[in-house]
Amino acid sequence: MQELIDRWQKKLDDYAILNALPVTPERLQEMEWLVSSTTTPADTITAAAVQAKRNAFDSELVELKKIINKNYSKVADLIQDIVALDTTAFDIVTINITDELRKIPLFVYDLQVRGKALLTDLQTKRLAPVDAILTALPALKPEDQVKQIEAAARIILGDDFKMVPRYALPPAQQAEIANSWNATDTLLKYQEVDKGRTNAREDWLHGIARVHEKMKHLENAILLRDAFDMTEDDLMIHPVQLPFKADKYTWLAMPFKDAKEDIDMDNDKEEDRELEETNTLLYTAFTNTAEPAPTEICGMRVDEWTELIPAKKETTGITFQYDRPNSEAPQTMLLVAPTKLTGNWHWNDLVDALSYTLDAAKSRGVQPSQIDATGFASFLPAVLGAESLLPFSIVLDNKVHQMDEKFVRNFDN
Question: Does the pTM of the predicted model rise above 0.85?
Answer without folding.
Answer: no
